[in-house]
Amino acid sequence: MKNLLRTLFIVLLLSSCSNDDSELVSYNNPEVSLNIPSDFPELNSSFYTNIPTEFGVELGKKLFTDVRLSADNTISCSSCHIQENAFADHNPKGIGIEGRIGLRNAPPVQNMAFMQVYNWDGNKLQLEDQPLVPIITHEEMDSSILEVIGKIENDESYIELFKNAFNGEGITADGIYNSIAQYEYTLISTNSKYDKVKRNEGETFTESEAQGFAVFQEKCISCHSTELFTDQTYRNIGFPINPDTEEAGRARITGSTEDYMSFRVPSLRNIEYTAPYGSFGQFATLEAVLNYLDNGVLEADNLDPILKDNDNRIPLTAQEKIDLIAFMKTLSDSEFVGLDD
Ligand code: HEC
Ligand code: HEC
Asked: How far apart are CA 177 and CA 116, in angstroms?
């Protein structure tokens, strides 16, 4: 056995030496260890084909914050996805180059690895397919992937990072998309007060938070369910309608009137940091959202039955609103947004 192994070893050694010009360089690029909470929804299957590595994530983060992804070198992904805002921002609608205003409110980039559908209308099913959209959108970065590659291809730090991240490869479009997605996969928020209470880490809800959680379970959880506080379905809940004629909600993708002005149920994690609210930022505060649901929403043929069967409203008392807001604020993860407790 020992001899056989030794022979094999020598054969391998010889075969690797015999080919002079194939320089065997190995890139040490370990996978990053991620905290995947066991009670979160399943990972998107794309994650397993693009597992975050040390250099992949470093590269993705560098690209995410690089203004050269935009035509006039003024806007990066992180201009609209700001860490202090849980990687959303405070504008009602996204503001891109030359102050151009987009169609929708920027959602927080958090817990993306556990989502099966992306954007307000779910037009992307894989995170790797998403970065090209803002790069080429006129109201966002208004560039092209070739233009971006042209700007960074002679940058030594990028050349080095691509090589390390993708086993010696050069700068490619796929490398850009995959590394950005790898970075985004690492943005996992799981350290809110809610999580700590749930994990019995010594924190407890106040009276108002506990009451709010109870109301939430009664009136909100049929849509804002799972540990992400979204069931990832599309619903029309009769919010004020975006006056932009481009908007049709999920119907933009399916072309079906049944999906007109339906939107993906948003996660409520870190909601405290992401005002204004709604698909085009139509509500300045959480209180405004709750008052609206209580007062009555817009009628629509495809209005969600939960509202339709209840006089187009979710009735809430003043105290319930206070308690719900207190509860929603327990979903704030100060560590995730880079603030210390
Ligand atoms: C001008 C502001 C702006 C810029 C720049 C921008 N985004 Fe966004 N982002 C948005 C808006 C608005 C949406 C929602 C789009 C929609 O639903 O149609 C969004 C959606 C997303 C989503 C989906 C989030 C979810 O909850 O499904 C991801 C991921 C994302 N952006 C990543 C990026 C990356 C990566 C870049 C840079 C390549 C980038 N964004 C640049 C505004 C921006
Ligand atoms: C029938 C499903 C449904 C129910 C029930 C529901 N929501 Fe929502 N919620 C949604 C959808 C869909 C949106 C996005 C709608 C849009 O922008 O047009 C939303 C948006 C929100 C927003 C704004 C989030 C953001 O990031 O912009 C908040 C806050 C919110 N809901 C809280 C609640 C609370 C609290 C309750 C219970 C009192 C509740 N919702 C009940 C489906 C629901």
From this structure: 17
Tokens (6 digits) for 249: 């909600």
CA-141 nearest atom, ligand 1: 5
Structure tokens at 244: 């932009």
Residue 41 CA to ligand 1 center (angstroms) comes to: 22
Tens digits of per-residue pLDDT, 7-27?
334 333 444 444 444 456 778
Compute φ and ψ for 77, nearest 5 degrees.
-55, -40
pLDDT tens track for 167-198: 999 999 999 999 999 999 999 999 999 999 99
- Quick check: CB of 276 below 6 Å from ligand 1? no
Distances (CA, A) of 44 to 35, 113, 184: 15, 6, 13
Nearest CA to ligand 1 atom 16: 119
Cα–Cα distance, 196 to 205 (Å, whole number)? 10
Say how far apart CA 230 and CA 223 lie, in whole Å.
Answer: 6
Contact 168, 293 (CB under 8 A): no
- 330 CB-contact burial (10 Å; exposed 0-12 / middle 13-18 / buried 19+): buried
Distance 106 CA to ligand 1 centre (A): 6
Tokens at 266, concatenated: 């948003």
The vertex-291 CA angle with 209 and 286, nearest 5°, equals 50
Express each pLDDT in 71-111 by its tens digit: 999 999 999 999 999 999 999 999 999 999 999 999 999 99
Centre of ligand 1 to C-alpha 264, Å, is: 15
Of all ligands present, the nearest one to the C-alpha of 247 is: 1
Pocket test for ligand 2, best of 269, 289, 298 (most atoms within 8 A of CB): 289
35 near 11, Cβ under 8 Å? no
pLDDT of residue 53 exceeding 60: yes
